[in-house]
Fold these 2 entries.
Entry 1:
Amino acid sequence: MQVGRETFEQTTVSQIPFSELELSKLTTEYGTPLYVIDEHTLRNQVHKLRQGYSGYKGPVRIAYSMKTNFTPALLKTFMTENTLFDLTSPGELYFYIRSGGNPENVIYTSVTETWDEFSQILRAGVRLIVVGSANGLSNLMGVAEKEGYNPKVMIRVDPEVGVKAEVRASRRNGRFGVPLSNNTGSLDGAASLLRRIMASRLEFEGFHFHLGSQISDPTCFLNALDKLEHFITKMRKECPQLPVNIIDIGGGTPVNYGIRVPTPLEIGTMITPRLNALADTLKNEFTLVVESGRYLSAEACVLLSRVLNTKNFGDQKVVFIDAGYHLLLDAVLLRQEYPQYIIPSCEHNPNDKTVLAGRLCDTYDTYPLSPASNVCGAEIGKLMAISNVGAYSVVFNMPFHCQTKPATVMRKADGTYKCIRERQTIEQLYGEEGGNLD
Ligand SMILES: Cc1ncc(COP(=O)(O)O)c(C=O)c1O
């Protein structure tokens, strides 16, 4: 498997799932900035991810991680693809249920794990909850006892393995989940939580880990599964009836932003033999849950922006577009290289010295270019398509400099277009900020 940075073939806008002509037409109707999302690509990502794990001999469920993009039309699309949903807040649960979601298809992983939060989600019908702290487990047990629920529970463990990823969630002395091995005597350890669950009215369902996002080397999954198997084998000696109905390996499937990354098939080919061996050891074909946010939602979506100004500064050409990091926070936070393409496209010039800047009055508002980008020929009035922005973008939209949220248009599977999020008006923003309260 080839992993890592490779010279990426120079691309044109045809790499994204829309033609230049249709994108231009959509901006004529809806203006810029504008998100355009392709329903077919969303569905296809689910199929490709599922296909990647088809070598696993037990059942496989894909869970969409709603934190990446909570647009209701997108949720509804995934609902019809029979995915589960990975949720982490009562707000997400509200969106999910209002969009027609069944709470029984939710895996709820809270960060703060308060009594009130557990009470709220149990009342709403959620039945599968991931716990990752001793206090959280006490709260869940308390609510279940007091309000008469028998939720199924998974323990979120941190296998503390090395992870090559843009965002690493598993690490020594981390903050998510509990360590598998715990020599400190603290109650926040996997063995301690497991013993308490087994002695309670909660139903123990299995284990969950999340190693990171945009994982570039899937070996970390193998290392995590080794550690998990060791732990379960040890606990089975103490508790031979320990059920393991689900193993949830979290998210992390990467997206090609112009740098070669392993595909779901390559990842699946590497780790499904290990999962099959684990099922043999456990004498149980547990349900494998693969969570995914970025891979499922990123590639379907393009952000269209217009070039508003250009200037020459030294030997560089600075190009200002009407999208800034208020729409793509990851571009500054993580220096995420989203591929950008100028429309109408021009031939790529390797010596081009264009600096792409957003419209914000902030030093950090410049876009790193991806190896796949082609911003040559950027002139006032042209369009800039920024691709693969369906994940961790819309959810970060913010009103810095009184900027309003762009509209989102979906190209439906039948080829028609539908506005699925209306552009926020400046009057609405003024009202939301309390402007009408006197
Ligand atoms: C628990 C959990 N699962 C899944 C995901 C989704 O990860 P990704 O977008 O890399 O698929 C995240 C992201 O932060 C997460 O925290």
Note: The radius of gyration is 23 Å.
Entry 2:
Amino acid sequence: MDRFNGIPAIGFGTYPLTGVEAERCVAAALEIGIRHVDTAQMYGNEKPIGRGIVASGVPRGEVFLVTKVDPSNLGATRFADSVKRSVDDLGTVPDLLLIHWPPSDGDIDGPVERLLREGERGMARSLGVSNFSPRQMRRAQDLAGGSLICNQVEFHPLLDQSKLLVAARELNMVLTAYSPLARGRCMEEQVVKDIAARHGRPASEVVLRWIIQQGVAAIPMTRKRENAASNLRAADFALSTEEMAAISALSSRNLRLINPSWMTQGWD
Ligand SMILES: NC(=O)c1ccc[n+]([C@@H]2O[C@H](COP(=O)([O-])OP(=O)(O)OC[C@H]3O[C@@H](n4cnc5c(N)ncnc54)[C@H](OP(=O)(O)O)[C@@H]3O)[C@@H](O)[C@H]2O)c1
């Protein structure tokens, strides 16, 4: 499996899984060979995710575990305590700790400095951000002296994220694609269906392949073991330059699924 800045190309998303279902699905994903698991304080599932990793029997050192600091915990009085709680709930130090959303007041310096402090204290093995615009990424990476490895953003063929991709490459950061299948919408596109038929693969694998072939990691969520196994097989084939371009042209759909009210700073 390819890794981008150490992040396995295909991972496993866990929102909105909770409780025993979250535990079962994570264990199943690891059993079939996925080695990258994405959670967040916001999802309320860090405890079952931690239990699922243990239940899978896969050695902890083989799993790349990501969690994120909730917007309500970005302030000076809550940040460190929230990270300690995440580590306790997961039962382990995460491989990557992200700021889940830029703060709504637009002042990212304080939260980024607090994130860096958690890294220095050994509360995460690497650090990054999520939902940061190119301008915010540049500022954060500047403050971090180039040590941030990732920006996790909505990324799929139906949305043009090329500015973010250019910025990430300039800054030695990688993107991780959330909602990589646009929650199923990508698989409805005829272009994707035609390419899938040519390769004898499901449309979902073509979409994930389009993502990882650009050096972007993807974290699809599924409740089904067979779909998790299929998602992993996106690593096993290649799309031609023409096929990549035909799928990229779908960005004219301009479908942004996640656009919460606190994103007042815009996406620039
Ligand atoms: N950083 C952020 O702000 C942020 C925001 C949103 C999401 N995320 C993360 O990104 C993860 C994934 O995003 P998402 O859940 O929004 O969207 P997604 O992964 O694009 O779509 C999930 C849907 O795709 C289906 N699916 C998955 N694999 C499939 C396959 N091989 N064939 C057919 N259908 C398949 C699943 O159904 P089945 O269960 O039936 O397979 C599920 O309904 C989340 O779980 C979360 O960890 C992060």
Note: Residues 3-184+211-223 form a domain with the TIM Barrel fold (CATH 3.20.20.100).
